[in-house]
Amino acid sequence: MEMENSIFIPATSDAVWQALHDPAILEKCIPGCRNITPTPKGDMLVKARISIGFINRDLLGRLRLKDESDAPRTLLMQGGVGQRVRGSARIITVPEGAGVRLSYEIRLKIEARIASLGSFLVNRTARKLGAEFFDRLARELGPKADQL
Predict the structure, then answer these.
(1) Which residue in 41, 45, 76, 129 has a CA-CA distance of 20 to 30 Å to 66?
(2) Does residue 44 lie in a domain region?
(3) What is the mean pLDDT of the chain?
(4) Which residues constitute the domain of residue 124?
(5) Helix (H) or strand (E) holding 117
(6) Structural domain includes residue 14
(7) CA nearest to 79, candidates 63, 67, 59
(8) Which CATH number does the domain housing residue 72 bear?
């Protein structure tokens, strides 16, 4: 599954970059996230509750951030659950008005029983979760009510 989209975030590229590297912020933004634990290798273990159709599962995945050469403008997030679910998101920020336009490309590969639910349901859920992550990130980095 592949998807592309963009969202306006009322923050600087540096602020977005820092947020995407902050386990506490990621924990708030990842749908269903229960806990994030940084590892000595620089990865993060992510415990999350995921619902696809009638299936609800607690999963433990690994998230790795790969800084691109033109940081803080681009970032590659890679993750997986075991050997059968792999995904990546390439994130690019471009200054726009009082913030940045964050564009993302998500690629997901599933080689598991969950794929038997049907590609439509799995793809729809993946798109929803991806969009929800970036919406939460925008809200997290946007002006707080007491700052308005």
Answers:
(1) 129
(2) no
(3) 86
(4) 2-30+64-141
(5) none
(6) yes
(7) 63
(8) 3.30.530.20
